[in-house]
Amino acid sequence: MRVLATIKRVPITGGRIVLTEDSRAIDTRHLGFTMSPHEECGVEEAVRLIETNKGDSVVLTLGPPEAVEQLRDAMALGIDRAIHLQTDGQEWDAEATAAAITDAIRADEAANGSFDIIFFGNESADSGGFQVGIWVAYALGRPCVTGLKKVTLEGASVRCEQEVEGGRDVYVVPLPAVLTVKEGLNLPRYPSVPGKMRARSKPVAVTSPARPASRLELINLAVPAGQGRRAESLGIGAAAAPAVVDLLQKTGVL
Amino acid sequence: MSVLVLMEPGDASRQTLTLARKFGEPLHAMHMNAIDPFSPDALATVLQRAADKLQASAVLAAGTERGNEVMARLAARTGLPFAANCVAVEPVQPVTVTRLRWGGSLLENAILHSGRPLISVAPHTVQIEPGPEPTDVDVKPLIAGLDERDLVVSVSGHVAPSHGGVSLSTAKVIVSGGRGVGSKEGFAIIEELAGLLGAAVGCSRAVTSAGWRPHTDQVGQTGTKVAPDVYIACGISGATQHMAGLKGAKRILAINSDPQAPMMQNADYTVVGDLKEIVPAISAEIRRARAGRI
Ligand SMILES: Cc1cc2nc3c(=O)[nH]c(=O)nc-3n(C[C@H](O)[C@H](O)[C@H](O)COP(=O)(O)OP(=O)(O)OC[C@H]3O[C@@H](n4cnc5c(N)ncnc54)[C@H](O)[C@@H]3O)c2cc1C
Ligand SMILES: Nc1ncnc2c1ncn2[C@@H]1O[C@H](COP(=O)(O)O)[C@@H](O)[C@H]1O
Predict the structure, then answer these.
(1) B193-204, pLDDT tens digit by residue?
(2) B228: CA distance to ligand 1 center in Å?
(3) How far, CA to CA in Å, does A176 sit from each of A133, B186, B211?
């Protein structure tokens, strides 16, 4: 079986987002980076599927040279190899991202055969376009099920559970398929030390696709107003308990 | 020229209509339940047919899970760009939009280069305004002759929610614990207080990653978005991704040993100190108050 997971490098923004001077990006000078929790669950699921069924697990990202860190993180969890579509760090819109990912998938499949499952995050952490996986699925002519919290192989099909208000909807689609997943799909393992060691020598195939003009073209970013509330102190330590209960009574909670 | 809106029950679609009117009139509505059971590719196909027939200048939907999903499929089918979770639009060409990033922690202004803008409207962000109502599209002739491939992805079953108790997304009161709670067992005092208040228990991602609570309890950008009257945050630092789930919270009470924690800056009420002392003291005080009332 062959499984692909796609991930995107994003900053860990902490308690407050600070923008660059031109307001076109987050100031990441003092920040660490990660992938979306949704995507991490896709990676974990890919690793589990290959542990059970044997085969080839691959991770793919479109991002700057530093995004190799996130590819190594995924390989530390057990992914076999990586594809890095390198950019100069500029924004790519969803459509362009999907086109580059589709080309890379076609090239890998031409050499190694079709991926049975391709995992995407339901939405990226930063731009939240809710669409790259769907564009890729349409381009490849494969079924796509979104927002999944559970994925079970059933022979040549996959049973998918999608979270909805009041439970979960079930879909059963034939493989090969594109699945977009959410955090909660599984509990990703922590990378082991040997896992991290092995990840260092796993293969990363690098290409540099050309960036087409964006049709959803970012002008600038802004931090929404009115976030800082003015907090009223109810006191310090256990002595504050009566004030808390007063508040709960006043607000009708008690 | 006309404008096509994919409608669902609820306020999110009323907000969508408000933005849709900016693109002009007349307004036409297609409903999410036009194809039952839900089949997103089929809906996207029918939406495309309706948009072509009406020569729609724009197609809009609410930025719900389903709204975004069907719009993304419409985009991929037609090769037109799609802007998800917009909070404002400027309909004069070139169309500009303001949309949510990072689950609402950041706004993006962008140009949507398209002859037929595809837009979803972020729920709870637009003030509903009255205006002309849409007329329903007659979908019957549009559904006829759907390709079998459009129906491969269709809902074929349903699983009831696995856990009982108060649902996080609709809870009026939430007692939520973060890494500061210290352990799985540490949540006993959080559960006790929640029990006394008839509240739901919530948590941060640090807690779910550690395996102390199930992901169904997680509040935030990749967890549940909540809208309680009171949110009691115990030992949660207030990372932007956690706060992204709290936009609908009316009042936040933060309990934290660090007065500088972002949660303490973003709360309405604060108590500084060790939650392991403060939370049980609040529970005891509630019991005392109740005993006194009898
Ligand atoms: C793309 C992305 C998505 C994410 N989505 C989510 C999400 O949906 N939800 C979410 O919660 N996080 C999410 N995160 C993670 C988020 O960035 C933070 O890492 C996380 O919220 C931190 O959890 P925490 O506040 O419990 O832990 P910490 O940040 O470690 O904070 C612990 C707090 O407890 C206080 N404390 C410690 N001991 C005590 C004590 N005895 N008494 C009182 N206070 C004490 C400390 O002062 C501190 O403020 C996401 C991250 C990324 C990158
Ligand atoms: N630059 C990228 N590199 C690799 N995968 C990506 C990239 N951007 C988006 N994706 C994938 O597409 C999903 C949805 O992204 P989006 O449509 O931006 O919300 C993400 O969760 C990723 O799995």
Answers:
(1) 999 999 999 999
(2) 19
(3) 14, 44, 32
